[in-house]
Design goal:
Elements lengths: L23 H12 L3 E9 L2 E3 H19 L2 E11 L4 E4 L2 H5 L9 E12 L8 E10 L6 E4 L2 E4 L4 E9 L2 H18 L5 H8 L1 H39 L6 H14 L1 H31 L6 E3 L2 H44 L2
Parallel strand pairs: 2-10
Antiparallel strand pairs: 1-9, 3-4, 3-5, 5-6, 6-9, 7-8
Helix pairs in contact: 6-8, 6-9, 8-9
């Protein structure tokens, strides 16, 4: 080296690189576990439920406890996305944010999507592999659909849980699916058999009640018509049997009676009563049908407004049940009262 040449510094080529404790094969397996296409298990569970923030936290605690204890897993990320009734949403990026979540806006929570990403070292694998668990909870809502990242989630009459597990170990995925299913089933409310029967057959019940009212009106009309004929015959016979009457008086009475058209007037009253009864029977049938269709709802109570909505709708549902029982009594009483009114109306004219 010549004296006029500057001293060259030794270059450290390790700067700017990440050193992993894997050999080449292990590194390839590790990247495959992260970026490969795992198998997917999906499941939908419908029912009526009431989910609070604590229930979401319990799902996380349940999964974490199982995975850490049995699989020595590591939670990489937890994302919780909450959907609101005004088509807005919020994304919570950690469990700590979920613990401290408190929505101040006056919005109603209608759905939530929880996504867990774990790295798990299975006994038969040399490196940890990525496993992803997704749980979607949708409450009863009048919105038709929620779309997120081009994946549609349709609403049904009931609330819905949707499980999606992307796994690289079939037995592990089935185990997690069973774990979530058991937890979900414990949250679904048991339906009353009587109320569910009434709801499913609400249209038939409405038709039966309306038909019974109409049948009662027809029977009352028939009896009243028969009584009218008997009463008029007795009245005519009683008048004609008076010994003081002459033949001319009897003929004059019969002519005036025929000219009075009492039976025609009575028939008109029957037609009016029949039309009235038909309208009332339809109204009663529709009313009873709407009260019988008293379905339970699913609630996602994550905001103050959602809590208010739940209290309001549950109070309305209880009143609807009471009104259904009263509607049956009112329908029966209405049929009886309508017939008495018709009898009184025909007697006084």
């Amino acid at each position: 080296m010549e004296a006029n040449e500057p001293n060259e510094e030794i270059q450290d080529f390790t700067k700017g690189y990440l050193t992993l404790p894997f050999d080449e094969d292990q590194f390839r397996d590790f990247i495959t576990g992260l970026l490969g296409k795992p198998q997917t298990i999906t499941k939908r569970i419908s029912g009526d439920f009431e989910i609070h923030l604590k229930d979401l936290q319990n799902f996380h605690d349940l999964l974490t406890q199982r995975i850490i204890q049995q699989n020595n897993g590591k939670l990489v990320q937890l994302k919780t996305k909450i959907y609101y009734s005004d088509d807005s949403s919020v994304l919570l990026s950690s469990y700590e944010e979920l613990l401290t979540y408190n929505e101040v806006k006056p919005v109603i929570s209608v759905a939530v999507r929880m996504t867990w990403i774990y790295l798990i070292q299975f006994a038969d694998k040399r490196v940890p592999e990525k496993q992803e668990i997704e749980l979607m909870i949708v409450s009863t809502s009048q919105r038709n659909i929620i779309e997120d990242e081009d994946i549609p989630f349709a609403f049904s009459d009931d609330g819905e849980f949707r499980i999606s597990i992307q796994h690289t170990a079939r037995s592990w995925g089935s185990d997690i699916e069973g774990l979530l299913t058991n937890q979900i089933n414990s949250l679904i409310k048991q339906k009353s058999r009587i109320k569910e029967f009434l709801r499913k057959h609400s249209v038939k019940i409405g038709l039966i009640i309306g038909s019974l009212f109409m049948i009662g009106a027809l029977i009352g009309t028939y009896i009243t018509y028969q009584n009218f004929d008997k009463t008029e015959i007795v009245r005519i016979q009683t008048f004609l049997q008076k010994p003081t009457l002459t033949i001319d008086d009897k003929i004059d009475f019969l002519i005036k009676y025929s000219a009075s058209n009492l039976k025609d007037y009575f028939s008109i009253k029957i037609i009016i009563f029949f039309i009235f009864s038909l309208i009332v029977s339809i109204v009663l049938g529709v009313w009873v049908e709407s009260l019988a269709d008293n379905k339970m709802r699913s609630y996602l109570v994550l905001t103050r407004e959602a809590l208010k909505l739940r209290d309001k709708l549950e109070d309305k549902r209880k009143k609807k049940t009471l009104m259904f029982c009263l509607s049956i009594l009112i329908s029966i009483a209405s049929s009886v009262i309508a017939n008495y009114i018709f009898i009184f109306f025909t007697k006084t004219n």
